Amino acid sequence: MKSYRKELVIKTTNRREYVNITPEVVKCLKESEIKEGLVLVNAMHITASVFINDDERGLHHDFETWLEKLAPEKPHSQYRHNGVEDNADAHLKRQIMGREVTVAITNGKLDFGPWEQIFYGEYDGIRQKRVLIKIIGE
């Protein structure tokens, strides 16, 4: 069995943002030369997520609206975590959207359903963060 590991560095321009990282994952899959196996993609920060969904701007707006209703950023005083930091909402949003995804690899390609793409979700951005891509298989 072969294994491949790479870290992506992502720096968003907004506090909250969604980045389609599918092209980077596909590039890593080609570099790995693995034809059958699994790819794990996970956010290496507790205020960011990785998830699979459709790459549609309206849906991304809906994520933002929904998450802000569930875990509003302000007022900061509503959260016990917000003493030294002001990012409790980002921790909660990450819990909802998830830490990682695993995708099957078949015939050297990501085995997606229709419209599926891999996204990095940032909830406390404007600084560099990392995403791990780990591929195992033959």
Task: Write a structural description.
By secondary structure, the chain is an alpha+beta fold. The protein has one domain: YjbQ-like (Jelly Rolls, Sandwich), CATH 2.60.120. Helix content is 25%, strand content 38%. The strands form 2 sheets. A 5-stranded antiparallel β-sheet has the order 1-8-3-5-6, with helices on one face. Strand 5 and strand 6 form a beta hairpin. The longest helix has 14 residues. The radius of gyration is 16 Å and the shape is elongated. It starts with a strand and ends with a strand.
Keywords:
138 residues, Jelly Rolls, five-stranded antiparallel β-sheet, 3 helices
Sum this structure up briefly.
The protein is α+β, with helices and mostly antiparallel strands and 138 residues long. The chain has helices spanning 22-32, 57-70, 88-97, and strands at residues 2-11, 17-20, 37-43, 48-53, 100-106, 109-110, 117-122, 128-137. It has one domain: YjbQ-like (Jelly Rolls).
